[in-house]
Amino acid sequence: MKALVTGGAGYIGGTVAAQLAGLGHRPVILDNFCHSSRKYLPPGIEVIEGSVQDRPLLERIFEAARSAGDPFDCVLHFAALIEVGDSMKRPEIYFENNTCGSVSLLQAMVNAGPRRIVFSSTAAVYGNPEEIPIREDARLEPTNVYGATKVMVEQTLEWMNRIHGLRYASLRYFNVAGASEDASGVVRGEAHDPETHLIPLVLDVAIGRRPSIRIFGNDYPTPDGTCVRDYIHVTDLATAHIAALAALDKHERIVCNLGNGRGFSVLEIVEAVRRITRHAIPVEVQPRRAGDPAVLVASADQARSLLGWQPRYTDLDSIIRTAWEWHRRRYAE
Ligand SMILES: NC(=O)c1ccc[n+]([C@@H]2O[C@H](COP(=O)([O-])OP(=O)(O)OC[C@H]3O[C@@H](n4cnc5c(N)ncnc54)[C@H](O)[C@@H]3O)[C@@H](O)[C@H]2O)c1
């Protein structure tokens, strides 16, 4: 399988591209490096520097492959801006990059490319869900611009399927975490710039790069008062993408949550990092942040039934241990 992997220089896209290559498939990465560097690129994979917003470039890529008798079979679309807080300050940039960029990619696919796409959606499409665990048929009411950009792409995909027969899988990830080693021995873990994700931030405290971890709100209606989230290991997430590509042989459109179906609170994460790193991890409690739902936990039934997929990392410590190993190595370099 030859796959265009947009955003393949990033944390998740890079992991999936490496896993595809390890299985003998042929990923080609397209990234504009706006939030990544060449340092963590999976080795031995063709890389094109460019933006998904550049439709003529995308059409040239698809056409060149086709006229060489080696067309793309599918697209895995990870490229996006992902910072929720930033999206609430610069909505126009997020709609332009995430929504318009995806539409530009879909247009190029319809004009010259493959008719099969796996799209990185997010639990942020649900906003404050009424029921936990969250099923895929829950109302989509994002509470931030980032989530709204993804809902719009999901809706566009639905119409592109009905009108152009484009097959798609919208995979709604919950909190992706952990590090993985690819077939060539390269270990890749979570690194965003700026970092806003909880596990790398707590690990930063353990490594001495931050004095303490800020907890936003300890008065939520949860067992210990802090927010509860569902964490999925990046290797399991990558496996689900490969399963989704195969499932598109049978199903024209797939909408699936990707989570473990189990929630952990912010304090449970801090405790797990304390256990694993043997560091005290001072915490600093701050007021709640606007728009943070108390609990986000996936119903993982649909992924099991449609994709035949099961996560392998189901306990928190094993997820955090892989993240810690990578984090330590990263800053020891
Ligand atoms: N990390 C998570 O927990 C999480 C959760 C839910 C959904 N997602 C989604 O997964 C995808 C990947 O996230 P990630 O954590 O790997 O983020 P990341 O920032 O590490 O990767 C995103 C990559 O996309 C690239 N990119 C951005 N805009 C681009 C453009 N216009 N053209 C080409 N490349 C562009 C960036 O340079 C970066 O390499 C995103 O779509 C994100 O919304 C992530």
Describe the model.
With 333 residues, this protein is of the alpha/beta class. It folds into two domains: 2-176 and 232-258, 3-Layer(aba) Sandwich (Rossmann fold); 180-230 and 261-332, UDP-galactose 4-epimerase, domain 1 (Alpha-Beta Complex), CATH 3.90.25.10. 39% of the residues lie in helices and 20% in strands. The chain contains ten helices and 15 strands. A seven-stranded parallel beta sheet has the order 3-2-1-4-5-6-12, with helices on both faces. Strands 7, 11, 13 and 15 form a four-stranded mixed beta sheet that branches. α4 (91-112) runs parallel beside α5 (145-164). The mean pLDDT is 95.
Number of domains: 2
The total strand number stands at 15
Q: Please report the distance between the alpha carbons of the first and last residues.
A: 35 Å
Low-confidence stretches: none
What binds here, in terms of ligands, is: nicotinamide-adenine-dinucleotide
CATH topology of the largest domain: Rossmann fold
**Total helical elements:** 10
What is the string of SSEs from the N terminus onward? EHEEHEHHEHEEEEHEEHEEHEEHH
In terms of DSSP E residues, the strand content is 15-25%
Strand order of the largest sheet: 3-2-1-4-5-6-12
The secondary structure category is alpha/beta
- Supply the CATH architecture of the largest domain: 3-Layer(aba) Sandwich
Helix content: 25-40%
Shape: globular
Strand count, sense and closure of the main sheet?
A: 7 strands, parallel
What's the name of the CATH homologous superfamily of the largest domain? NAD(P)-binding Rossmann-like Domain
Can you identify the CATH class of the largest domain? Alpha Beta
